[in-house]
Design brief:
Structural class: alpha/beta
InterPro entries: GH (IPR017853), GH13_cat_dom (IPR006047), Maltooligo_trehalose_synth_4 (IPR013797), Trehalose_TreY (IPR012767)
Helix content: 40-55%
Distance between the termini: 45 Å
Number of strands: 26
Strand content: 5-15%
Low-confidence stretches: 793-809
Oligomer: single chain
Shape: globular
Largest sheet: 8 strands, parallel
Protein name: Malto-oligosyltrehalose synthase
Length: 809
């Protein structure tokens, strides 16, 4: 396996296709990047900017450039010395527009007899032999009676092999062979007769809990689960991907949502065999990251590691002041409405149970149908459904992989039984069945715990518990507030020893807030009383009527400021609907949303002076945190990924805000100035961050011998707690933490770091330092971070070696 030294994530989309990406590979090389990391490339739904709704796995998306553009991009990357990593989506396909997906269209047309019927995870028996499509805005009877459904012979552009179609507004569905009417009609009797003969059944979207009979991605009806556990489906859905590897167009793969698969470990084994052991990463969320009891990635999986959310949680927390927790807890308690859950744990439990009872109800129903008949009869369907929902709610991780994880199952059983003593007996009956080896029930239970966790925690609880926005991030547990330097070092020692080629990340296409927004918000833990007073002033100007939602929105505004009103309105609408307290996606509340948008308007109006006052106070320490976080990531163990554009300050919020266009021309120009010897200030330009990114990436790429181990270095003095310092085997990273507290105590004073013997050159400033005791006040007098590289005998004539060593303390 050839692993990258670093990666740079590019979002390939119609507005920035593969040819556009090929035009910046020289910039990526100059930045110091080792591999380009591309978002999904297979043909996706029209209008998709993310590419995770693949509609045809057999071809590169023509709107992203097509196969010829992939060949051109790969050649350009090779010419720049870059490897290529590509994101793939084995779990599901996009089915929003049936005609776009040839496999789905064929299943709708031919039903169980379709050549692709086995590709999709469909419970035909539950549907009475039909595939249920919850696409209607009312019941089928009402839609037919209203003349909203038309059946007709096909037009030339609708054919796709079918002789007739049914139309419902934008939906066009194929009719089974021999069932098309002679002419287009909405006559209820004719429509009823035709629809009765189809292999699919249209249903009211609100009835999906009872009607839905295909597995989907989370709660998205337009993403249908694919059965890659079947060899023929794996082969058909991976033929194009394997061609890329076979022909040398790409070097590695990032696997989206492996927990959705029937057998993630088996899939990775099959992929490793098919690729000859290529570099493969998995998008896997590990719970309780940054603690001594963190969930571990299954060691037997054929993967180099995760995509780095666990590292993100560690880096974020070492830069958060633990002393701020109590005051922020007090503020949260004051903001909580009487009807709201008091603790984060209660918020999570309520949210997950709601998910299990609503948007995952169809999957829970399928679990009930998977029970042995005698067990189903013993428990009764209602009790079985209730017990399954409670057990799913009580899982503390996304998934277990039997026979491993028995202790986590036992914990979930105990938690479910304690929460619902009336279900204890039923839960005890279900527990051995959901972990009983390779059964359909155990596989499906494993495929359901993840969606309940993701929708309940990431997409609900995180928007209901805004105590400190930094903490409500993918892969993080807000219950873990901070991490001291010693705890951070332990985590990195373990990372170096166990998963040295796993990815590390600070921003991704899925993060709720970009790294620089989180770095700024982390400052609030150092000034909690100041934030409490500011929030009180802001709420006096504009409030949604819900204290926690106010805190969430005002933190987002302060964290992303300056931001356009349009961006903030989009975020506020999404965040409030995801939280589901005062409004929701299913039932938007117009009055509540009017208050929400009024709050956003106030940010650039009556409350603007208050916003800019607090932003002015936390921006500088936030930038110190940003540079520290970036250095810790780029110099630390693992394969660091730089998300597109984040080499400068990036104050993005949740997707799609974080997929905005990147100004690469600006970045090229700034990099050229840096290479001409410019040492920028830590100012609005973001050039200081570009300096840290480029020098760190180049050092890792050009001098890999300096990054072979991980060892904390001693920091001695009154301000020692404000530094994180480690030696990677010749490359030494020095980062400032808790900058507000550091300034309040008067700076570094006599605090020193003890460097190994020999001469070390700071890759950021070019200054040289001899081993021994070095004052941090001197080392960090230009930037809040330093990256020292040990010189070698062959470097005696290099320009760096001519820089006189600064006198050490």
């Amino acid at each position: 396996m050839t692993a990258p030294v670093s990666t740079y994530r590019l979002q390939i989309r119609p507005a920035f296709d593969l040819d556009a990406a090929a035009g910046i590979v020289d910039y990526l090389r100059d930045l110091g990047v080792d591999w380009a990391y591309l978002s999904p490339l297979l043909a996706a739904a029209e209008g998709s900017d993310h590419g995770y709704d693949v509609v045809d796995p057999t071809r590169v998306d023509p709107r992203r450039g097509g196969p010829e553009a992939l060949t051109r991009f790969s050649a350009a990357a090779r010419g720049a010395g870059l490897g290529v990593l590509v994101d793939i989506v084995p779990n599901h396909q996009g089915v929003a527009v049936a005609a776009e997906n040839p496999w789905w269209w064929d299943v709708l047309r031919h039903g169980r007899d379709s050549a692709h019927a086995a590709a999709f995870d469909i419970d035909w028996e539950h549907g009475g032999g039909k595939l249920a499509l919850p696409i209607l805005g009312k019941t089928l009877r009402e839609a037919v009676a209203a003349g909203e459904i038309e059946v007709a012979p096909v037009t030339a552009d609708e054919a796709h092999g079918a002789s007739g179609v049914a139309r419902y507004f934008d939906h066009v569905l194929p009719l089974a062979d021999g069932t098309a009417p002679a002419a287009a009609t909405t006559d209820p009797a004719t429509v009823d007769a035709v629809l009765a003969a189809q292999h699919w059944r249209a249903a009211f979207w609100r009835d999906d809990a009872a009607e839905l009979n295909y597995r989907r991605f989370f709660a998205v009806n337009t993403l249908a689960g694919v059965r890659v556990e079947l060899p023929e489906v794996f082969d058909a859905s991976h033929a194009e991907i394997l061609r890329w590897l076979r022909e040398g167009l790409v070097d590695g793969l990032r696997i989206d949502h492996p927990d959705g698969l029937a057998d993630p470990g088996g899939y990775l084994d099959q992929l490793a065999q098919a690729t000859g052991g290529a570099y493969v990463l998995v998008e896997k969320i590990l719970e309780h990251a940054a603690t001594d009891h963190a969930e571990q990635l299954p060691a037997w999986w054929a993967t180099a590691g995760t995509t780095g959310y666990d590292a993100m949680a560690e880096i974020d927390r070492v830069l958060i002041d633990p002393a701020g927790q109590s005051a922020l807890d007090t503020l949260d308690a004051a903001l909580r409405s009487p009807a709201s859950p008091e603790t984060y744990e209660d918020i999570v439990r309520d949210a997950k149970r709601t998910v299990a009872d609503t948007i995952q109800a169809a999957e829970v129903g399928r679990l009930v149908r998977c029970l042995p008949a005698d067990v189903r009869d013993q428990l009764g369907e209602d009790v079985a459904r209730d017990a399954f929902a409670e057990l799913l709610t009580s899982f503390s991780v996304y998934r277990v992989y039997p026979p491993a994880g028995s202790e986590l199952v036992a914990e979930a059983v105990a938690a479910a039984s304690a929460s619902r003593p009336d279900l204890a007996e039923a839960v005890a009956v279900l527990a051995p069945l959901v972990t009983a080896g390779d059964t359909e029930l155990s596989r499906r239970f494993g495929q359901t715990t993840g969606p309940v966790m993701a929708k309940g925690v990431e997409d609900s609880a995180f928007y209901r518990y805004p105590r400190l926005g930094t903490l409500t991030e993918v892969g993080g547990d807000p219950g873990v507030f901070a991490l001291d330097a010693a705890g951070y070092h332990r985590a990195q020692v373990q990372r170096q020893a166990t998963w040295p080629h796993a990815m590390t990340a600070l921003s991704t296409h899925d993060t709720k807030r970009s790294e620089d927004v989180r770095a700024r918000l982390s400052v609030l833990a150092e000034v909690p009383q100041r934030w409490s007073a500011t929030l009180e002033r802001l709420r006096a100007v504009a409030s949604t009527g819900d204290g926690r939602l106010d805190d969430l929105l005002w933190q987002a505004i302060v964290g992303a400021w300056p931001a356009s009103s349009e961006r903030l309105h989009d975020y506020a609408e999404k965040a409030s609907r995801e939280g589901g307290i005062v409004t929701s996606w299913a039932d938007p509340d117009e009055d509540a949303e009017a208050r929400i948008h009024a709050l956003v308007d106030a940010a650039s109006g009556e409350a603007r002076a208050i916003v800019e006052e607090i932003v002015g106070e936390i921006t500088a320490p936030g930038r110190s945190n940003s540079l520290a976080a970036k250095l810790l990531q780029l110099a630390g163990p693992g394969v660091p990924d730089v998300y597109q554009g984040s080499e400068l300050w990036d104050l993005s919020l949740v997707d799609p805000d974080n997929r905005r266009d990147v100004d690469f021309a600006e970045r090229r120009a700034l990099l050229t100035k840096l290479d001409q010897g410019w040492l920028p200030e830590v100012d609005d330009s973001g050039a200081a961050k570009l300096l840290v990114v480029s020098r760190s990436l180049r050092l890792r790429r050009d001098r890999p011998e300096l990054f072979t181990r991980y060892a904390p270095l001693p920091v001695v003095g009154a301000a020692a707690d404000h530094a994180v310092v480690f030696d990677r085997g010749g490359a030494i990273a020095v980062a400032t933490r808790l900058p507000v507290g550091l300034a309040a105590r008067g700076g570094w004073d006599d605090t020193v770091v003890l460097l190994p013997a020999g001469r070390h050159v700071d890759a950021l400033t070019g200054r040289a330092w001899d081993g021994g005791s070095v004052r941090l006040a001197d080392l960090l007098d230009t930037y809040p971070v330093a990256l020292l590289a040990a010189t070698t005998p062959t470097a005696a004539t290099s320009p760096d070696a001519t820089v006189p060593a600064k006198e050490n303390a």
